[in-house]
């Protein structure tokens, strides 16, 4: 059975997720842990649960989602997986990290590129992937239908969508891909976003003011 644990880190209140199953193999998504206390919180949970981390994955590479990349890679010696379109996004972080109050940010390089033709396999679990650009050029969403879990990053939020005023963002693309791809997933799939509380595909299809049936134009 797939399990999920969420940790909210850094001043951006970013959601970091750990997924693991009965084999105790685990995947970490979007580690936002920057401060030592945040890193220790994540490490303590992993140690207490007896987890073996297999992959580090960024849904996308904006600063709030990658602050803990170097820590995770170094601590667990695991590969970093991203979409190839996120390379310039990831490389740019070091140039502005200090301006956002993160002078000790460490650069990391991706080890493998993934897209929606791949799956993420760990333990007895296989996650499928959706390519949902718009908030970021290589944004990926990961889901597991049997467990009704969807790691959505900054694509779809409870009553909102990812911002599209950042370099590499495209509002029309985000709307299009949410409707044509993300909304093809089952209504009862629980959406775990990069910020804020979880929601569901069905609820957002009906109520989201940007992409739902009652969207305001």
Automatic annotation (TrEMBL):
<keyword id="KW-0378">Hydrolase</keyword>
<dbReference type="InterPro" id="IPR051453">
    <property type="entry name" value="MBL_Glyoxalase_II"/>
</dbReference>
<keyword id="KW-0862">Zinc</keyword>
<dbReference type="Pfam" id="PF00753">
    <property type="entry name" value="Lactamase_B"/>
</dbReference>
<feature type="domain" description="Metallo-beta-lactamase">
    <location>
        <begin position="13"/>
        <end position="195"/>
    </location>
</feature>
<keyword id="KW-0479">Metal-binding</keyword>
<protein>
    <submittedName>
        <fullName>MBL fold metallo-hydrolase</fullName>
    </submittedName>
</protein>
<dbReference type="InterPro" id="IPR001279">
    <property type="entry name" value="Metallo-B-lactamas"/>
</dbReference>
<dbReference type="InterPro" id="IPR036866">
    <property type="entry name" value="RibonucZ/Hydroxyglut_hydro"/>
</dbReference>
